[in-house]
Amino acid sequence: MCRSDVRQAVLAKNDDLAATLRGDLARRGVALVNLLSSPGSGKTELLGRVLARAVERGVPVAALTADLATENDAVRLARSGAPVQQLLTDGLCHLEARQVGTRLDGWLPPDTAVLFVENVGNLVCPAAYDLGETLRIVLMAVTEGEDKPLKYPTAFGSAHLVVLTKTDLAGPAGFDEAAFRANVERVNPGVEIVRSCARTGAGVGILLDHALAARDTAPPHRPPLAPHPHGHHHPASAPVA
């Protein structure tokens, strides 16, 4: 069996586990939100704000955060008052459905409406793995450059929602938002882009509303590289016009 065949077999097995997990969570009334970004995008701080807003509103949410090492992010997120678990991958550059399902077994509070999964900081490997999510969100900071969607088309092309973070730094960073939006449109036509800033709280309520809506209805946007419901599409990259 060649290397590509092995990879496809691994991904196919993951897809089956993800589909089972998605069905189990749906029967429990839980929406899983998979958060993907590069390291340093600010997703942990933004997620902490979203969790705190949910707690303030009395919305039962929980979070699973993944890292290669340390429990630093779990400690930070737990300050929100929401239930949080750390998942250490021991060097693995991505999460898989098996890991998520195992960690949730016996832990996830029964009244949970939304489970946020903060994936490992990486826009390559995590993009190929369906975690049983209802909603996939890809985040990018303004400091990362307008061409990031073109460099990582699989990640951006599989997103139901794209979040632009650290927008308060757009001016100092010389960020060209129009070019960024055009690049996102090239790899994922029609996807919504939410502007956010953890420092000011901008976009926090919008993200929580999107997560809650995913619990009741399918995401309104169908990305070209959608990870479900009929198994994951595993191309080398998204089409770029």
Detailed description of the structure:
Residues 34-194 form the CobW/HypB/UreG nucleotide-binding domain. The chain is α/β, with parallel strands linked by helices and 241 residues long. Helix content is 38%, strand content 16%. The protein has helices at 3-27, 43-56, 72-78, 97-104, 148-151, 153-157, 170-173, 177-187, 204-216; strands at 31-36, 61-67, 84-88, 114-118, 135-141, 161-165, 192-195. A seven-stranded parallel β-sheet has the order 3-2-4-1-5-6-7, sandwiched between helices. Helix 2 packs parallel to helix 3 (72-78) and helix 2 packs across helix 9. Residues 229-241 have low confidence and may be disordered.
List segments where confidence is low: pLDDT < 50 over at least 5 consecutive residues: 229-241
* Count of helical stretches: 9
> Could you tell me how far the N terminus lies from the C terminus, measured between alpha carbons in angstroms?
34 Å
Strand portion, in percent? 15-25%
The residue-averaged pLDDT reads: 91
Strand ordering within the main sheet: 3-2-4-1-5-6-7
Shape: globular
Helix and strand run? HEHEHEHEEHHEHHEH
* Helix percentage: 25-40%
Based on DSSP secondary structure assignment, what is the total number of beta strands?
7
The assigned structural class equals alpha/beta
Sheet of most strands: 7 strands, parallel
What Rg, in angstroms, do the CA atoms define?
17 Å
GO biological process, one term: protein maturation
Protein name: Hydrogenase nickel incorporation protein HypB
Pfam family, one: cobW
Keywords: GTP-binding, Hydrolase, Metal-binding, Nickel, Nucleotide-binding, Zinc
